[in-house]
Design brief:
- By secondary structure, this protein is mainly β.
- The chain has a domain at 8-109.
- Helices cover 5% and strands 31% of the residues.
- The chain is built from 1 helix and 10 strands; from the N terminus they run βββββββββαβ.
- It has one helix at residues 121-128; strands at residues 8-14, 20-26, 31-34, 38-41, 50-54, 63-69, 76-81, 93-96, 111-115, 139-144.
- The strands form 3 sheets. The protein has a 5-stranded antiparallel sheet with strand order 4-3-2-1-8, with no helix packed on it.
Length: 177
């Protein structure tokens, strides 16, 4: 990710009912937030790639957000929220870069990977350095934008995206393989 709008979604989903999950930024990129969860202060640096991961376990007393500037060698772990009521699974719609409610994401996204399991900090560190998923167990969806805009789900689960607008290639991707 490189820049952020005032209020923008990075990843969002809903079940066409009362459950939705939105992971994004607010306050001009100062806060990371998860809907129905909480926020944590974070300052994005324009032009610097940042790895961000949120662990979401609806039965846990606390969940974590991890982040590091690329190339991610050490992830910072920060308490994030308790007992969210929603998550990204069992969705009617799944969006990357916007959801129709907030501003579109005004930055670059290198890859999005979603599991229906909570990964450890060690597993997340391995994921931070790679476009392709390193852990394939419980992989729900994977989208690599290494070669530019794509709609294909690399997980093999056939969760193809529909492009809205005209996504473009960021010529200066993160220093990962």
């Amino acid at each position: 990710m490189t820049t952020a709008a005032t209020y923008a979604m990075v990843v969002a989903s809903d079940d066409a009912g009362s459950h939705y999950c939105q992971f994004g930024v607010s306050s001009g990129g100062i806060n990371l937030f998860l809907s129905n969860g909480g926020t944590t202060a974070f300052n994005f640096t324009t032009g610097t790639w940042t790895f961000i991961a949120a662990t979401i376990d609806r039965t846990a007393a606390e969940n974590w957000i991890y982040y590091a500037n690329a190339p991610a060698t050490t992830l910072t772990r920060e308490f994030f929220f308790a007992n969210p009521s929603s998550h990204l699974l069992d969705t009617n719609t799944f969006s990357i870069g916007g959801d129709g409610f907030g501003d579109p994401w005004a930055g670059s996204i290198a890859a999005v990977k979603v599991w229906n399991a909570v990964l450890t900090q060690t597993e997340l560190t391995a994921e931070a350095a790679k476009y392709a998923p390193q852990r394939t167990a419980n992989l729900w969806g994977a989208y690599s934008f290494q070669s530019g805009p794509q709609t294909t789900d690399d997980s093999g689960n056939s969760r193809t995206l529909t492009a809205v607008g005209t996504p473009t290639l960021d010529a200066s991707g993160p220093p990962i393989t």
